[in-house]
Design brief:
Layout (H helix, E strand, L loop, with lengths): L6 E6 L8 E6 L5 E3 L6 H13 L9 E3 L5 H4 L2 H8 L2 E3 L2 H7 L3 H17 L4 H13 L18 E4 L2 E7 L8 E5 L4 E5 L25 H13 L5 E4 L8 H25 L4 H8 L5 H20 L3 E6 L2 E6 L1
Parallel strand pairs: 3-4, 4-5, 9-10
Antiparallel strand pairs: 1-2, 2-3, 6-7, 7-8, 8-9, 11-12
Helix pairs in contact: 6-10, 7-8, 8-10, 9-10
The chain binds zinc ion (ZN).
The site of zinc ion has 4 residues, from loops.
């Protein structure tokens, strides 16, 4: 089956290099928006225009589903909820970050600083990364969600039951929405046609727990989706994915290849993650340096579970070696 007639894609601009984000409107007895776009004037305007073209305005919304806690996907949710009274639903894992909880924010800052320090990132670069990370705050607004979307939750889109899939990896709280009979998946940033999703390192949900290993989670979530009958995936950015299984195989092969490059970088001598990131990507702005480091951590952890790499602490630094 194809995309249901009640489901509409509204591309909304973002100030980020990823380009526009896809917001989905589902018509039916509960007018529902899946993701919102960032809190950014051009996004606000084009969402309003997209809704108007379908005969609606923001105040008509009754339900807002947020797929994950990246500002390009949820930044406008608070003002849309205030204008419409819509209830906002997401995975409970996203709730504290979206609420702008101070403890959560400070523990994230401390977590990223500790990760960067252990990776050998110089203090000046850590400060720049933190400054860029904080800059993303302007594209969101704190929001109280009703965090009830977990694996297996059924929810109504267009008066049909859709199933929530919990697919961590790109972020620890990412959900996809699945319609088994129609074989349609709203894949958010889990599966994008033109871009390889970056699994981003995040602190554990509860202090004291082990932190998630994003690439391992991401690959497991991809393998899971590859098992499902899906004819078309409607992603968070870019065009629909019409060959999900083939694309998933390509994505996993890409990460294997990247992991192999990192293994080659380790061959000569032991290295910190920052050194590896400079070898692979000599010049990056602070936020992309952070994303590169995050990705390399993912690949090294993947190599570690395969028995190909290991690490040890030398003073404040974690040093990686080829096995
Ligand atoms: Zn994202």
């Amino acid at each position: 089956m194809t995309v249901p007639p009640y489901l509409h894609t509204i591309p909304v601009p973002t100030p980020f290099s990823v380009g526009p984000v896809n917001v989905y409107l589902a018509e039916g007895s509960l007018l529902t928006l899946v993701d919102t776009g960032p809190r950014f004037d051009p996004a606000r305007q084009s969402l309003a225009d997209g809704l108007a073209a379908l005969g609606y305005q923001p105040s008509d919304l009754q339900q807002i589903i947020l797929t994950h806690a990246h500002s390009d996907h949820w930044g406008l949710a608070a003002e849309l909820a205030a204008a419409s009274g819509a209830r906002v639903l997401t995975h409970p894992m996203n709730a504290a970050e979206m609420a702008g909880n101070v403890v959560e924010r400070e523990s994230r800052t401390a977590f990223y600083a500790a990760v960067a320090q252990e990776a050998g990132v110089p203090p000046a670069v850590i400060a720049q990364i933190e400054q860029s990370r904080q800059g993303f705050g302007q594209f969101t607004q704190p929001l109280q969600t009703e965090g009830t979307l977990v694996e297996g939750t059924m929810l109504l889109l267009g008066d049909e039951a859709w199933q929530v899939l919990y697919t961590p990896g790109h972020t620890r709280g990412l959900i996809c929405l699945y319609h088994p009979r129609r074989r349609v998946l709203l894949s958010s940033d889990h599966l994008l046609a033109d871009i390889s999703s970056n699994p981003v390192i995040e602190p554990p949900e509860r202090k004291g727990n082990a932190r998630p290993r994003p690439l391992l989670d991401y690959v497991a979530s991809l393998q899971r989706v590859a098992q499902l009958p899906v004819d078309i995936a409607l992603p968070g950015h870019g065009p629909p994915v019409t060959n999900p299984r083939e694309l998933i195989a390509r994505r996993i092969a890409f990460h294997q290849e990247r992991a192999q490059h990192i293994l080659e970088a380790l061959r000569e001598e032991t290295r910190t993650i920052y050194e590896i990131s400079l070898l692979l990507f000599p010049s990056l702005d602070p936020i992309n340096r952070f994303l590169a480091i995050s990705e390399i951590i993912g690949h090294l952890e993947w190599l570690e579970v395969q028995g190909k790499a290991r690490s040890e602490m030398q003073g404040p630094l974690r040093i990686w070696k080829k096995v």
